């Protein structure tokens, strides 16, 4: 398949990266949610790289919470081979408000992404279907077992939206499709969003567009989708990648589902059981036990006799002598005390918080 949206399209992509990440605390106390690392790279970087492979290289980032962290990391985008422009909100404008706020940068068909999503949506195919159907908006959708916790999208046999229902009871809808946080819009949609105030695209804009007769299509060929909104989902994303349920470009595992950097130093007296990801310059000491379902970020150190199982350890963190870290997250520069036991916990430099399981 030709994975190119097409240069002639001059298509821009807008990432909605301004959320506070409240449900992801304490991870987001000092870090915007789109910057949480997925196998050593920020989620936003992973998504920009994916877009570039589809021929989209003009990126708009709508930021609000700790925007300087995002800007300092990405700069003008040249290190990723893309052009990045920033639109910073002084106060949160909601999903549609952020889209409207980017209007001066947009003059043709454009893509919109919630910046906290990991998915296998084929952007090139989604754009092709949008054009074939003559849609003015296309919404990527994903299937869920219990749609009553979400806003549900109903559609006709031609793939056009017929209704939006917010958290319907089981008898109120036959649909199990929900909004997957990826959209294609024609620029005239911007005229339907009021400027200068908070607006929700899901609750306000889409129902209005439907009422006014706009053609809104669905794209329902998404087989993997995850909103990284909570620590549990963050851990799940890594386990899914390690187990091969979702593929990251450029990440090759061996037959034991192990990725080990050539610069990692692993004692011959340590035990490593896949699936695992072990990054650059990681040190694993004698008698340590690593895996399964474990990620060790660049420069992390695992002390003698320590165990790290089902956990994600960020760059430059240390797990002390004899410690056990199970189903937990260890953030950058954190030191896990020697001989301590950490289960279902988010460990930061300052504090540790239980993960609700």
Helix amount, in percent? Answer: 10-25%
What class would the helix/strand composition place it in?
alpha/beta
Mean pLDDT: 90
Q: Numbering strands along the chain, what is their spatial order in the largest sheet?
A: 5-4-1-6-11-8-12
Task: Tell me about the largest β-sheet.
Answer: 7 strands, mixed
Total of DSSP H or I helical runs spanning 4+ residues: 6
Any idea what the shape is? elongated
Give the strand tally: 30
Question: What percentage of the residues does DSSP assign to strands (E)?
Answer: 25-35%
Our Rg estimate from Cα atoms comes to 21 Å
Which regions are unreliable across 5 or more consecutive residues at pLDDT < 50? Answer: none
End-to-end separation: 40 Å
Write the layout of secondary structure elements.
Layout: E1 12-17, E2 37-38, E3 41-42, H1 43-53, E4 58-63, H2 67-74, E5 83-88, H3 94-101, E6 110-114, E7 117-119, H4 123-132, E8 137-143, E9 151-155, E10 161-166, E11 177-185, H5 201-211, E12 216-219, E13 225-227, H6 231-242, E14 258-260, E15 265-266, E16 271-272, E17 276-278, E18 283-284, E19 289-290, E20 294-296, E21 301-302, E22 307-309, E23 312-313, E24 318-319, E25 324-326, E26 329-330, E27 335-336, E28 341-343, E29 345-347, E30 352-354
Parallel strand pairs: 1-4, 1-6, 4-5, 8-12, 14-17, 15-18, 16-19, 17-20, 18-21, 19-22, 20-23, 21-24, 22-25, 23-26, 24-27, 25-28, 26-29
Antiparallel strand pairs: 2-3, 6-11, 7-13, 8-11, 9-10, 29-30
Tell me what you see in this structure.
Helix 3 crosses helix 5. The protein has 6 helices and 30 strands. Helices cover 17% and strands 30% of the residues. The chain has a 7-stranded mixed β-sheet, sandwiched between helices. Strands 14-17-20-23-26-29-30 form a 7-stranded mixed β-sheet. The longest helix has 12 residues. By secondary structure, it is α/β, with parallel strands linked by helices. The mean pLDDT is 90.
């Amino acid at each position: 398949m030709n994975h190119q949206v097409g240069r002639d399209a001059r298509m821009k992509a807008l990432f909605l990266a301004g959320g506070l990440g409240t449900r992801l605390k304490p991870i987001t106390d000092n870090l915007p949610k789109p910057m949480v690392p997925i196998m050593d790279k920020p989620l936003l970087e992973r998504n920009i790289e994916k877009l570039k492979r589809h021929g989209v290289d003009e990126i708009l980032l709508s930021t609000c919470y700790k925007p300087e962290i995002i800007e300092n990391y990405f700069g003008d985008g040249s290190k990723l081979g893309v052009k990045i422009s920033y639109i910073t909100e002084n106060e949160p404008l909601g999903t549609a408000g952020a889209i409207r706020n980017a209007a001066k940068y947009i003059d043709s068909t454009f893509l919109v992404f919630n910046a906290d999503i990991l998915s296998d949506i084929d952007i090139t195919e989604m754009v092709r279907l949008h054009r074939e159907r003559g849609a003015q908006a296309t919404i990527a959708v994903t299937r869920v077992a219990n749609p009553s916790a979400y806003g549900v999208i109903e559609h006709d046999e031609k793939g056009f939206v017929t209704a939006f229902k917010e958290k319907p009871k089981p008898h109120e809808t036959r649909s199990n499709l929900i909004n997957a946080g990826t959209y294609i819009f024609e620029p005239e949609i911007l005229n339907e969003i009021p400027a200068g105030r908070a607006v929700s695209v899901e609750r306000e804009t889409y129902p209005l567009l439907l009422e006014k007769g706009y053609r809104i299509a669905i794209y329902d060929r998404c087989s993997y989708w995850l909103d990284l909104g909570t620590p549990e989902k963050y851990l799940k994303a890594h386990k899914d990648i390690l187990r091969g349920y979702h593929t990251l470009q450029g990440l090759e595992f061996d037959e034991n589902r192990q990725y080990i950097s050539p610069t990692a130093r692993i004692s011959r007296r340590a035990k490593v059981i896949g699936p695992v990801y072990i990054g650059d310059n990681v040190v694993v000491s004698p008698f340590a036990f690593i895996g399964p379902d474990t990620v060790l970020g660049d420069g992390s150190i695992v002390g003698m006799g320590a165990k790290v199982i089902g956990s994600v350890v960020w760059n430059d963190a240390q797990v002390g002598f004899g410690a056990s870290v199970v189903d937990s997250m260890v953030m950058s520069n954190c030191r896990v005390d020697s001989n301590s036991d950490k289960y279902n916990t988010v460990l930061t430099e300052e504090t540790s918080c239980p993960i609700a399981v």
